[in-house]
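Consortium newsletter contribution from the modelling node. Members have asked for a concrete example of what our holo predictions look like. Here is one, prepared for the 0RA complex that several groups have been discussing at recent meetings.
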Amino acid sequence: MAENSAPEEASYGADQIQVLEGLEAVRKRPGMYIGSTGPTGLHHLVWEVVDNSVDEAMAGHCSLIKVAVKADGSVQVEDDGRGIPVGVHTKYAPLTAAEVVLTVLHAGGKFGDGGYKVSGGLHGVGISVVNALSTKVDVEIDRDGKRHRMTFKDGGKPDEALTVIGDSPINDETGEPRTGTTVRFWPDAEIFKEGIDYNTQTLLSRFQIMAFLNAGLEFWVDDERDPEFERKIHRYEGGIRDFVAHLNRAKEALFEEIGHFADQGVDEEVEVAFSWNTGYQSDGIHSFANGIATIEGGMHEQGFRSALTRTVNAYAKDHDYLKEKDDNFQGEDIREGLTAIISVRLAEPQFEGQTKSKLGNVSVRSLVEKATNERLREWLEEHPKEAKAMVFKASRAAQARIAATQARQTIRRKDALDGAGLPGKLADCRSKDPAESEIYIVEGNSAGGSAKEARDSHTMAILPIRGKILNVERARLERMFKNTEVISLIQAIGAGVGEDFDVEEARYHKVVLLADADVDGSHIRTLLLTFFFRQMRPMVDAGYVYIAQPPLYSTKVGKNKIYLKDDVARIAYSEEHPNAEYQRLKGLGEMDADELWETTMDPETRTLLQVTSHQAAIADEVFSVLMGDDVESRKNFIQTNADDVRFLDI
Ligand code: 0RA
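And here is the predicted structure:
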C-alpha cells in the first residue's frame, strides 16, 4: 500500500479510499452520527468541535475557547490547547495526524497520551464527522512554533494540504510561541435541509454549563450575524460550586455555605456540590456525565440519593435530632430545598432511557455512594450549624408530607361521599369514554361562560378557573391540597395526584389549557403546566396535555371576519391584502360563543399545541432552573415552550 507509492499517490492509497468511504457513510446516514439533520444535529457539529477543545482543557492544556458564529453562518472554534499534532501518523503514514483527525472516523482521541479518554453519548464521534457534513472546513494549528493550515471541501475532501504558513505568535506572558487549534466549518445545506441557523441562546446555555463543569475554563461567544451582539464570556473559578450558587441565585439560602467533594475510582471520577434553600421543591438534583446533562438521572444520581438519605438519617440519630422511636426521614424530606450538582466522568458512559439521558454504568453508583457516605458525613460534622438547619428543615418537610397524605385521603373520602365527586364548577361532557372526552381548563368566569355555550357538550367539558392557582413550584403539597382551584382540577381529572396518580383512571384524554395570549394568561398557563409536570406527569407523558391557541388578530373582508393566529400570520396576510385593518383581540372574554368555537375549539379548524413528553423531560429541567427565578425568565419560559420548541429540543 502506502509504503511503496510516491507521497502524492499515497494519499489516494487504500487507507485514503477507506477514509473517503467512511466520510461518505456519514453523509449517507448523518442521523447515525449526529442524531438528526434538524436543529439538534446542526448544533451537534459545534458540540463535537468544542468537545475536543474541552478535552484539551481537561488534560490541563487549554484555558480559553472562543466560539464565533460568523456573518456567513459558518462557525469558528478557537482554542489555546496543544494544537492537533502535525507530524506523520504512524498508522496512516504518509498522512499527518491532523489530517487523520479531520478525515478518519473516531480518530479524534488522544493517541496513547495516558489517562482515559472520555466521551459522551453521540459525542466523541470526532471532528471528521463535522468535516463530512460541511461544504468547507478551514483548520489552523499553532504547534512547534509554526502556524499550519489545511482546508477541506465538499464533505471532507482534502483541498489545500497541511502547510506551514508562518511562525506562531509569541505569547507575551510565557515568551513561548502560541499553541492551539482553530477550526472553522460551513455546514452543508444539502444535509441540513431545515436550514442553517444557529441559535445563540442554545450555544450560550451549553457553554455556560460547560464553564461550570470545568472550573476556570473560559468561553467566549460571539455572534457576528448580529452587529448589536455583545461578546458573552463564561468563566467560573468555583466550578460546580458556582453552578449551585447560580441555580440558587433567586432563592433564599437556608445557609450560605456550599458543600463540595470529589473522589476517583479506577477509571471514573465524581465531583459533587450541594446546598439547601428555604424552598419546597425536592428535585433540585442536576446530574451530568462527561459534561452531558443526564436529565433522566441514572446510577450516579441513585448512588447520591441513597447515600444522602442514609447519611442524614444516621447523622440525625447520632446527634439526637431523631429519637430512637422516630421514623426515619424519607429521601424527599431531605431533598426538599436541596440544590446539588453531580458531575461524573468515565471512559465509556452508557446512556440509556427514552431520551438517552440516563447513565447506566453500575460501577458509578458505588463510587458516588461511597464518596457521598464518607464525605457528606465529614461535611456535616464540620458544619454543625448548617447540618442542624438542614435536619430541622427535613423534619418540617416530614410533618408536611404526613399532613399532605391526610389531606389527600380527605379529598378521596369526599370523592366517595359526593358520588362522582365532581366539582360544582365543572360543566362535564356527556360521554363517559375518556378517549373521546376533552376538558377545557379556562381562565376566568366570562370566558368560561362563552366556552360552555360554545362547546360540543357530548365530548367537551369546561372547567373555569378563577384567578391564579397556587404556584405549585413554591407551595408545599399540604397547602396545595387546600386550594379550591387545585382540588377542582384533581377531582375533575379523577385519577388522583402526585405519586398516587393513575393515568388509566383519567376521565379525559385531552386536557386543553385555554388562557389569554397576554402576560396574565401566560402566567396561569405556566402555573397549570407546572402543576401537570409536577403532579400529573403521566398525563404529559401520554400526550394528553394541550395548549389551545386563540388567535391574536382579526380582520374583516366584506362581511366575513378572518382570524389570524399571531404576528407571523398577520404579516403574511397583509402581504397579500395591502389594505386590511387589523383588530388586536384583547382576550377570550371578548369573544362571543360563536367566535370562540370557530377560532379555538372547533376540532375541524382549531390549532392545539401538544405538550410532548420529550419536551417535558427537558422542560422539567427548564422549570427547575427557571421557576422561582426572576419574572422575566418565567415569562420567557412559556414563549420558549410554545413558539420555539426547537430550543427545548436541543
Ligand atoms: C489529537 C491528539 C492531541 C490533541 C488533539 C488531537 C487535539 C484535537 C483538537 C481539536 C480541536 N482542538 C484540539 N486540540 C487538540 C494530543 C496532542 C499532544 O499530545 O500534544
